[in-house]
Amino acid sequence: MSKIYTVLLADDDPDYLFQVAFYLRKAGFEVMAVESQAEAEQVIARMKPDIAIFDLMMESDDSGFILCYKIKRKYPEVPVVLATAVSRETGITFGLSGGQDREWIRADLYLEKGVRPEQLELELRKLLKI
Amino acid sequence: MAQLKILVVDDEPGIRSGVSRILGNFHVTYPFMDEDYTFNILEAATGEEGIEIIDRVMPDILLLDNKLPGIQGVEVLEYVRKKNYDIVVAMITSYASIDVAVKAHNDGAIDFIPKPFTPQELKASIEQITKQQYLRRITHKLKVEGRKVRFQFLSVLSHELKAPLNAIEGYLRMMQERQMGDSLDEYASAIERSLQRIESMRNLIMDLLDFTKVNFERQMEKMQNVNLKELVSMAVVTVSPYAIHKDIRFETSVNGCETIWADPNDFEIILNNLVSNAVKYNKPGGTVTVSVDCNENEFTIRVADTGIGMNSEERDMLFEEFSRIRNDKTRNISGSGLGLSIVKKVVDLYHGVINVESSPDRGSAFSVIIPMSQVSNLKTGI
User: Fold this and answer.
1) Which of A19, A36, A85 sits opposite B162 (nearest CB)?
2) Residue A69 domain flag
3) For labelling, which of A76, B93, B129, B246 has a CA lying 20 to 30 Å from the CA of B38?
4) Chain B residue closest to A92 (CA)?
């Protein structure tokens, strides 16, 4: 990879954050890891990442949705991944295939937490077209 | 302004137009309602026509004459009940034959409007029915929301239980795949974090056990004399390994009475939670003050700390299940977010209140105040 791509990664579980950041750095990405919606918003205000991965539930139940909305408003071209364990736990499913979901969940990809590191890397490369 | 649909089924055109005229500009207000109700009147001359309209537009209220040319009013009523429609039915009847009245009542007609009726009589009946319908729907809505709360509780719970498992699994895989190299030293923090997650999960499970122990009702056979000095020192001993680690000092006092009449389990839950929080959210070298006081009217447990405290917004969410105050100061403190909601439930059992005083960076004080009558043995006068 000639260009170094920057990933903005937000998750309030410090261990999950550490593990994903570890694997992404190993895969050659530069990672800005933050533990809250508020910190992620500060990063978005300051700089433009190449791609973003947001946890759904942080300070509030919809932190991930709010971050999706805010980053897309400022940088419409930055791909966004929503990573959450919500559907496994609640049985609620919301993929991004339906047009209606796509309209209000402004993410490019919806990923189940616990996806294998290689799979995550693959998905990021697809979204970044590299 | 909300609108209810009323269907009048009567073969006399005069009755139908009379109802339309009287209720056309009538509206019902009720102190608990958000808005006034007005009425949209639909008419049917026969039972068959009535059933067709019921299936098509689903009225809220049905005014039903019993004596109809084809099928009778009670048969329309039966149809509504069989289909389980949410419709309030009132019978309009000129002669109240007892067996029709009984049958109609058994099938769920809630009112009888005598024919001929005055506009006032009709309005009074409709007002009554509207209020009943409103209350029924509110009750139904609350029941549905009750289910939603339970669902939320379970999904948050499973999230809280799975998150540490995922974290520990992740670290184990890193080790299995030797992601950080071959030396065990590289994995020291991964091991430390795994142990911490296990510890917090254990706390959550213990709290859940407490949660199931509190039956949300008092069990009279478990009531006994509870020695307050023992109760306080048990709570202090339980948390002392952690307290020693953080260099926390305890000051305890019991005044006014030696025992109370209660389920010891309930008061262990109250004291253990308050005292362990007071240590957990304290600063290193801080103090925890536990005082228990009885006077004629009240039994008070007060637990104060010299810790990080909280602001008023944080204080408002304290007693909600799984609510944990998240900020830089609490980041490294593990908790289930259940402790205080359990304490609140136990205190409720004894008709008590729990008060919180707190200021950021200076500390918090929790006071549980229970009416003396709730913790006295009336038979022996203790």
Assistant:
1) A85
2) yes
3) B93
4) B155
CB B105 within 8 A of CB B138: no
Angle among Cα B26, B27, B28 to the nearest 5 degrees reads 135
Instruction: Please give the torsion angle defined by the CA atoms of residues B93, B94, B97 and B102, in that order, rounded to the nearest 10 degrees.
Output: 20
Domain count, chain A: 1
* Owning domain of residue A34: 6-128
Beta strands in A1-130 (DSSP E): 6-10, 30-34, 51-55, 80-84, 109-112
Q: Which of residues 158-197 of B touch A (CB under 8 A)?
A: 158-159, 162-163, 166-167, 170-171, 174, 179, 193, 197
Question: Inter-chain contact B167–A85, Cβ cutoff 8 Å?
Answer: no
pLDDT at B355 over 90: yes
For range B161-189, the mean pLDDT? 90
CA dist B327 and B316 (Å) reads 15
CB contact under 8 A, B179 and A36: no
| Amino acid occupying residue B75 | E
Domains by residue range for chain B, with CATH: 2-143 (3.40.50.2300), 218-382 (3.30.565.10)
**pLDDT of B125 above 90:** no
Q: Across the interface, do A19 and B174 touch by the CB < 8 Å criterion?
A: yes
Q: Which of A19, A35, A88 sits opposite B170 (nearest CB)?
A: A19
Residues 341-380 of B with CB under 8 A from A: none
Q: What is the CATH number of the domain that holds A123?
A: 3.40.50.2300
Answer whether A34's CB lies under 8 Å from A62's CB: no
B contact residues 91-150, partner A, Cβ 8 Å cutoff? none
